[in-house]
Amino acid sequence: MDMGVVVRSSRPFAMVDEITKGSSAAADGLQLGNQIVKFGNMKIGENLVQKLTTEAQINQSHAMLVVVMGQGVFINLTIKPNSWQCHDLLGKPTMRS
């Protein structure tokens, strides 16, 4: 995979509406308001949250390409999805047993 390729023909399908301090998303450069254009090899369609979760699980602890639009420009980011401090791979709180 060429991490230098920018996807210019795609439209954003999701927006980053929360970034938690200390998360892998914050460390990897995602910013509040970024619009997600590409998330690994995920195909856009129904069940978007499930597809995002599955793609994050497949790539857990491995580098994956995420292309976002921020302030009108496309930005290539390499992120490593990780769960952390009672949060799942997408940053949602999980219950402790």
UniProtKB/TrEMBL annotation:
One of its GO terms (biological process) is proteasome regulatory particle assembly. The keyword Chaperone applies. Transmembrane segments: none annotated. InterPro entries: PDZ_sf (IPR036034), PSMD9 (IPR035269). GO terms for cellular component: cytoplasm; nucleus; proteasome complex. The keyword DNA-binding does not apply. Keywords: Chaperone, Proteasome. This is 26S proteasome non-ATPase regulatory subunit 9 isoform X1. It comes from Olea europaea subsp. europaea.
